[in-house]
Design brief:
The protein is an alpha/beta fold and 381 residues long. The chain is 36% helix and 13% strand. The protein is globular. 46% of the residues are buried. It binds beta-D-mannopyranose.
Length: 381
């Protein structure tokens, strides 16, 4: 079964190889491997199977950090996630480590390793605020006058435009540094400016206008292109605020030329006052993925559940009875659960040995619907 599916995905990807000059973002060449990756993600979605992804999986986990060749997911089910997520927050500052203390050299190493194993890496970017020098998060709530000016300040004509170009150039240097020993550029899925439909990041809904948000996205993609970055697919990932309304979902969409994948960040409730948390989460996932699948068809894109999870996973069969059920047959290419912090006891979204839901995670792993690293053929050929 595993071999058959791997072959199907691999073959479908081969059949749809796009010429390298069909780069929708840049208009100039995006590497052939990057185009092949996009074809493979589409083939994966059409195969009825989806890849499992975990943030920071190979660099730390529940109760450990910085070991080599270790993973909470592998310790539980014997295989690695097919997709690894990493965060690039603080690359803009020229720091050696990201905002969670992960060295960028390690992220580069793991990205190349995952590519050589045939799997995928996706990057989020919780970058600092260039106007306040604060974090990505809006720290002053409604009294956030500076945060409200941040996006306009980095756009052309704004006081922080030059500074921000420098930040983008550091990001570009990192993307360009993702090369194998043979000099092959490693394609990755970049997911900038995420959860913009909420108002907790400086690029969020109430912090900038739709025009400013779109301009921010285009500035980012165009600058990276100018700096020779040709190994990125782009993911757009709003939160759930649109309630299934396609027009709202697309309100700040930067355009088909700037996006490859339509995503969704949607978490299971942990608030004690929410009593129908599973039902609400499942309905939300079902409604939103249904809407996104239609949009993906119209816009020729692929969809994914770009962030999800239930912090602390206090339900024994959450993986199969809640997550997997709500995804159902929606044609996503992957589902990502957030990180297992090594320094915060209850901040984890993936399994670890002995965790309440770990047996159920093994069932999720064994399901014919899910794909882990050993299940996939090389996504780039
Ligand atoms: C958040 C939390 C934070 C972390 C940030 C970036 O959701 O996990 O602890 O710093 O993501 O990874």
């Amino acid at each position: 079964m595993i071999i058959t599916l791997a072959a199907t995905v691999g073959l479908a990807a081969c059949g749809q190889k796009a010429p390298a000059d069909l780069n929708p973002v840049s208009g100039s060449a995006r590497t052939l491997q990057t185009e092949n990756l996009l074809a493979s993600l589409k083939a994966m979605a059409n195969s009825g199977r989806y890849m499992y992804a975990h943030q920071d999986d190979p660099v730390y986990g529940h109760g450990w950090a910085w070991d080599d060749d270790r993973s909470d997911v592998k310790s539980v089910c014997g295989d690695l996630p097919a997709v690894m997520g990493f965060d690039l927050g603080h690359i803009e500052l020229g720091d050696e480590k990201n905002l969670d203390g992960v060295p960028f050299d390690r992220i580069r190493k793991e990205t190349i390793k995952q590519y050589e194993a045939g799997g995928l890496v996706t990057f989020s970017w919780h970058l600092d605020n260039p106007l306040t020098n604060g974090t990505a998060w809006v720290e002053n709530g409604e009294k956030a006058p500076l945060e409200r000016q941040t996006v306009s300040s980095v756009l052309k004509g704004g006081d922080n435009h030059e500074l921000f170009l420098g930040w983008l150039d550091r990001l570009a240097d990192f993307m360009n540094s993702l090369t194998t020993a043979d000099g092959e550029k490693v394609p990755v899925l970049f997911r900038p400016w995420h959860e913009h439909t909420g108002s907790w990041f400086w690029w969020g809904q109430d912090l900038c206008t739709a025009e400013e948000y779109v301009a921010l996205w285009k500035l980012t993609a165009n600058r990276l292109k100018e700096k020779g970055v040709d190994n990125l697919l782009y993911a757009y990932s709003p939160g759930t605020e649109n309630n299934g309304d396609a027009a709202k979902y697309m309100e700040r969409y930067p355009g088909d030329d700037y996006v490859d994948l339509l995503g969704l960040d949607c978490y299971c409730w942990t608030e004690p006052e929410v009593t129908d948390r599973y039902e609400r989460f499942m309905n939300q996932i079902d409604t939103q993925l249904g809407m996104m699948a239609k949009l993906a068809e119209q816009h020729q894109k692929v969809i994914a559940l770009t962030e999800t999870g239930y912090e602390g996973i206090p339900l024994e069969d959450w993986w199969t009875s809640v997550l997997q059920k709500s995804i159902g047959d929606h044609p996503i290419c992957y589902v990502l659960t957030w990180r297992n912090a090594h320094d915060k006891d209850t901040h984890y979204f993936g399994p670890w040995p002995g965790q309440l839901s770990s047996d159920d995670f093994v069932k999720f792993y064994q399901s014919p619907k899910t794909a882990f690293l050993k299940d996939i053929s090389h996504l780039y050929q």
